[in-house]
Each structure stands twice: as structure tokens, then as C-alpha cells.
Amino acid sequence: MPFGDFFGYGLAKVVKFETTFFSNPEGRSFNCNIPMPFKSGAKVLIINESDKAIGLLFFDIDFVKLNNFPTGAMYFHAFWKRQKTSALGSDYEFLPQLKGKGRYLGVNMGINAGKHYENTWWGEGEVKMFIDNDQKFPTWNGTGAEDYIGTAWGLGQYTNLYQGATVANDSAKQYAFYRFHVKDEIIFRENFRASIQQIGGGERDLVRKLIKNNHPLKPVTVQWEGGFRRLLDNPKSIFDEDFPSGWVNFYRVDDYASTAYFYLDKPVSSLAGLASLEERIK
Q1: Residue 275 clears pLDDT 80, i.e. is over it
Q2: Other Cβ atoms closer than 10 A to 172
Q3: Contact 203, 248 (CB under 8 A)
Q4: Distance between CA 256 and CA 224 in Å, rounded?
Q5: pLDDT tens column, 167-183
Q6: Closest to 153 in 3D by CA, of 162, 141, 143
Q7: pTM of the prediction?
Q8: Phi-psi region for residue 89, left (φ > 0), alpha (ψ -120 to 50) or beta?
Q9: Distances (CA, A) of 282 to 5, 278, 279
Q10: What is the DSSP string of 149-200?
Q11: How many whole angstroms separate alpha carbon 80 and alpha carbon 24?
């Protein structure tokens, strides 16, 4: 996976921060302390895929030699994904279906929110975790992107041990955040997958304007002083004369990139048909 994404730098923006798994004390280093057990051997590959020569590369890899694989220990994995566009109304799946026993550790995510959506908010989508044969409805369901990382009503820059936002640029429409499940363990015994809805929100008149300008969106709900109304069955009603003036949530399409971290009871080199590193560099 990309070097910076692994170490928690969303959108390739390097900032000072410290989390429970990663740190960058002065804004110029890449540190990870996630335990990565191995049975018979381990190898670290850093591959320069750019067209520039790198003259100096300094690193420390610390390990404890174990005579036996610890009882109950699992293999650490990280999964990177980039999705620039998608079908309207589809969720962004940042961790495809896993099979086996394991533990979901968390995710860092970067969003280039489409500027054509103007001053609407991108992060109304719910984070969903489908655990152990969940089908239509997930065991774990959130209420919005900023809620998932412990804040609310928009997103500012902050960094804490388990959640934070390293980038929150409203003018550039760029956001990067992370959430790690340490105190609130997410355990699965058969299978697991995780996604976030691509849903934003804005005031009624602005949403009407965006629809008239043919920007990709579909109204989902409206909330106003008189209550809450679902719109999926009749999204065109937003143009009715008696449609209330309020906050309209709507499906949208943005540019997402993410790195999900997890343990699994067996090593996996690729997910969802995506090539492993060795296959990709050939």
C-alpha cells in the first residue's frame, strides 16, 4: 500500500500528531507501533514507484524473537483503497468482505469532496459494520462521518489517541480523519465488512440549485421545524411549492481513499480480487 497512507497521512498531507498506533512528533517522521506477530518469518518491502531517486532512507524495525506463536495471536493486515467515482446511491466500502475470525482495528480516510456541491456538507453518511453474516442491516451502525470520530456539526482539525482529523479544509473541500477501536473492540468470528454511505446535506434552496445544474445527487430526507420526511420514494418533490424550507440530506459522489487495519486468523495477500503487492509491481 502507499507509504504515507499506511502511517495515517490522509490526502498526503503531513502534520504533527500522535495516536495510539501512529505518531509524527515533528512532522517529518513515520512511526507505527502496532503488534505484528509472525510464526516463521517476516519481510518488509519499501518500493520506490516514483521517477525520482531516493538517496537516503533511514529506518528502525524492532522485534522480539518468539519461540512459539502466542496463543490466540492473529496476523495483522492493512487494506488500502482509492475510489474516485461510483454509482449514485452506493456506499464506499473501505473494507471488503473478510472471512474467518478477527478484529477490526480502525481506519484512516481521506475525502476530496466535490467542489461542484458548493457549500453543502459531505459527511452525513453512516458508517456500517457487517459482522458475522449480517445481510441487509449491520450490527454496528453510525449516524454520520463526524459522529464516528467523536465530534459533531461539521469537522475541524484535531488529533486524539483514538480519533481525530488531520485535515479539515472547508475552502479546499479536503478532509482526512481516523478512528481506532481499542477500548471499544470490534470482534468478528465468521466474517466482516465495513462501509460508509456517500450522503451529504444542505439547505433546500441550494440543493434545488445543484439539481437544476445537473450535479449528481438524489434527495434522501428533509428535516425542518415541522418534523422529518423521507424522500427516496419521491425525490422530485423537493421542487413542490409546499416543500418545507429545511436541511436536505442527499446521495452524492466524492473521491475517497482509505486504509483499514485489522487482525485475521490467517494471512491474506489480497482482498476482493485486488492484486497483491508482488503481483502489482511485476
Answers
A1: no
A2: 12
A3: yes
A4: 30
A5: 999 999 999 999 999 99
A6: 143
A7: 0.92
A8: left
A9: 22, 7, 6
A10: TT--SS---EE-SSEEEEEEETTTTEEEEEEE-SSS-EEESSEEEEEE--EE
A11: 20
